Task: structure prediction
Amino acid sequence: MCWGQDTGVEEDHTRDFSGIWTGTGVISGSGDAEKIELYLGDYMESETWLIGVGDVVIEEDKYGGGVGNATIQYKTGATYLACEADSWNNYVGSFTSLGWVKIRVSV
Result:
């Protein structure tokens, strides 16, 4: 799973930030230069995607710039409703998707 990387992609699922995130942060740039800008207290949440069952690794700092003190969390479920109802889980290196996935980044 890779967000914001358009070229040279080897991942099974790629997403752009534009138009598919909600929250108090800002999405800037385009293509491989896309990034989420967050200030203290801000958050951004992805929409809920059907990506299938499997391991998910989020490339937190693919092109530099760092994630600083950001917290990355995820929800997953076998159905859309189960994913929405799941509690936020702290992301630590990878997680197993049950089919549907939603991501949250906060500072």
Notes: Residues 2-106 form one domain. The chain has a mean pLDDT of 80.
